[in-house]
């Protein structure tokens, strides 16, 4: 579905992306792990048309994306901040994309009602954004993105501002809804556990270079992901705590 070939970008003579190539099939979620400043956001912005690549090609369903304006790429870019319309209800925030596309009212009612139920937001349909929690606002933002059925969903650490429990719940929700709607997406994060939770494909971005992994095992074994070290840490904690628990 998506083919990125030899993509490079620099700012003020400083390389940010170096010869990035990747392919993504329909329905796959590519989770890209990387530290701050590694180029994750720049990659998403180039895909969305918000930045211009210095070299390389982008194709979506065989269409050259480089000359296509951002508003015609049929992609949605989600940030950490939900950016909801404060004067619109939850229902109308989700319905917004359908209304500007002149979808018939009956279809709008049906599609929005069904999606709010999937997002467990039905009882909040008439509330304003300021009446919602952070996790609820992110669900509404997610729903507004899904309702227009984008060709590609780009997620820039969308759950980064949420507390740990809410973030875990949103990761599970994203995975469930993604599978149900067969969503194709690129999800960038600095959290290795989040990458493993949401991704059907895994990559690591470091100093502008992308490493793709053939399996979860390879991803976990790579020292840069820090997963093996974290597992070892918790194993040591558990073994140290065991005698005290036994007592």
Automatic annotation (TrEMBL):
Keyword Transferase included in the entry's annotation: no
Record's keyword annotation contains Iron: yes
Origin superkingdom: Bacteria
Coiled-coil parts of chain: none
Gene3D superfamilies: P-loop containing nucleotide triphosphate hydrolases
Keywords, sorted A to Z: ATP-binding, Cell membrane, Ion transport, Iron, Iron transport, Membrane, Nucleotide-binding, Transport
One biological process term in Gene Ontology: quaternary ammonium group transport
GO molecular function: ABC-type ferric iron transporter activity; ATP binding; ATP hydrolysis activity
PROSITE patterns named in the record: ABC_TRANSPORTER_1, ABC_TRANSPORTER_2
Domain ABC transporter positions: 2-232
Database matches in SMART domains: AAA
GO cellular component: membrane
PANTHER family, per the entry: SPERMIDINE/PUTRESCINE IMPORT ATP-BINDING PROTEIN POTA (PTHR42781), SPERMIDINE_PUTRESCINE IMPORT ATP-BINDING PROTEIN POTA (PTHR42781:SF4)
Protein name: ABC transporter ATP-binding protein
Organism of derivation: Hymenobacter lapidiphilus
Upper taxonomic lineage: Bacteria, Pseudomonadati, Bacteroidota, Cytophagia, Cytophagales
